[in-house]
Amino acid sequence: MGDSVVAVLTYRTWADGHADGHFRSGQAIVKRLVDDVEVESVTVVDPFRNWLRTLAPHPDLDGCFPPGVARRLTRPGRWSRGDPVGPDMLPAYRRLERRIRRTAPPGSVLVACHPVLAAVADPAAWRDVVYFGWDDWATEDDGLFAAAGGAIRWSYDEMARRDVNVITVSRTIADRIGAGRSTVVPNGVDVSQLDDDTPAPDWFRALEGPVALWVGSLERRVDTAALAACARELGREWTIVLVGPVADPGVVDELAPLDNVVVRGWHPRGEVLAMIRASRVCLLPHVRSPLTEAMSPLKLYEYLAAGRPTVSTDLPPVRGVSDRVLLVPPGGPYAPAVRAASEMPEPSAEELDAFRAEHDWSARYERFKTAVLSG
């Protein structure tokens, strides 16, 4: 009998990932699992949603699995409209695990992207139980997991007790879980998307002078004080551009009044990649917190794979990734590092190719696959 894997997504559905090219954490790895013809059977399970939403047609899903192999997408539903929180979370995910188990091929490996699902899964019913996580959800103070109460920390203790096979983007997360079995698979980049010929938007191309760019959700983990000080010190010669969905309007309120700061919302991925390529320097100004100390910044690899020097807050997961990253201590000045980064020579074609090969999602997937199937 060949390998069989059941991968249960969290946050975003397969349709969400299919719509944007599966470039995000978690989805990128699961997409490569689906495409791997050496794995005999793969079942992808969407995050469970209200039944009315699961019954709605999804035309974008047609043809999203490779033909000729055992591939299946399931979309479990629930009666409640919102995600289970607090005390309701454990029984809800126990019921979900039993439903998934009933239709899983015998001898399957369960890959759960939700920590509570990994913690409640019956280890005797699966060849192995794997938790695949890309943030320390126990430290999140907003978003889906913030309302979980103590369920996430409980799930960490339970995963350690049950010897769940843990795959995370940083050693810090595995250590906080206390995992006896763990593998670190940092975030990566889809090299095939980098040379998209979509032009940058007109407003971006109209900017004069060098641009320092941040790409990502505008939320509390962004160090707005550091960005504001950087903008004032750089002056009108530079433009700081922030592109991404606005999760916290306070970020916009603090930065928008500055003359040389441009805050824009969501843009199509091709335009985002074009802006990265056209920027002089890219930015990763995160506040230091338990959440950011454990992350693996997806945007960092995209910046560097596009050949852009990057100025980042000094955080453990950022250290040692590339000599083209200049680190700023939390609370330190960004402007001198931005100027220094702007004077870096362009990487050679050989250097860029080597970085891309090392950090492409395909290379990340091989390490993930080994951990899942031989764990």
What is the helix fraction of residues, given as a range? Answer: 25-40%
CATH homologous superfamily identity of the largest domain: Glycogen Phosphorylase B
Largest sheet: 7 strands, parallel
CATH class of the largest domain: Alpha Beta
Mean pLDDT: 90
Q: Indicate the radius of gyration in whole angstroms.
A: 21 Å
Helix/strand/pairing category: alpha/beta
Q: Number of folding domains?
A: 2
Low-pLDDT segments, ≥5 res: none
Distance between the termini: 17 Å
Protein name: Glycosyltransferase
Keywords: Glycosyltransferase, Transferase
Pfam family, one: Glyco_trans_1_4
Describe the overall structure.
- It comes from Nocardioides baculatus.
- With 375 residues, the chain is α/β, with parallel strands linked by helices.
- Helix content is 37%, strand content 17%.
- The chain has two domains: 4-188 and 361-373, Rossmann fold; 191-356, 3-Layer(aba) Sandwich (Rossmann fold), CATH 3.40.50.
- Helix 2 crosses helix 16.
- The longest helix has 15 residues, at 89-103.
Provide a compact summary of the structure:
Helices cover 37% and strands 17% of the residues. It is of the alpha/beta class and 375 residues long. It folds into two domains: 198 residues, Glycogen Phosphorylase B (Rossmann fold), CATH 3.40.50.2000; 166 residues, Glycogen Phosphorylase B (Rossmann fold), CATH 3.40.50.
SSE blueprint:
Blueprint: E1 4-8, H1 14-19, H2 27-35, E2 41-45, E3 49-50, H3 51-55, E4 70-74, E5 77-78, H4 89-103, E6 109-112, H5 115-120, E7 128-133, H6 151-162, E8 165-168, H7 171-177, E9 181-184, H8 202-205, E10 211-215, H9 224-234, E11 239-243, H10 249-255, E12 261-264, H11 269-278, E13 281-284, H12 290-294, H13 298-305, E14 310-313, E15 325-328, H14 335-342, H15 349-359, H16 361-373
Parallel strand pairs: 1-2, 1-6, 2-4, 3-5, 6-7, 7-8, 8-9, 10-11, 10-13, 11-12, 13-14, 14-15
Helix pairs in contact: 2-16
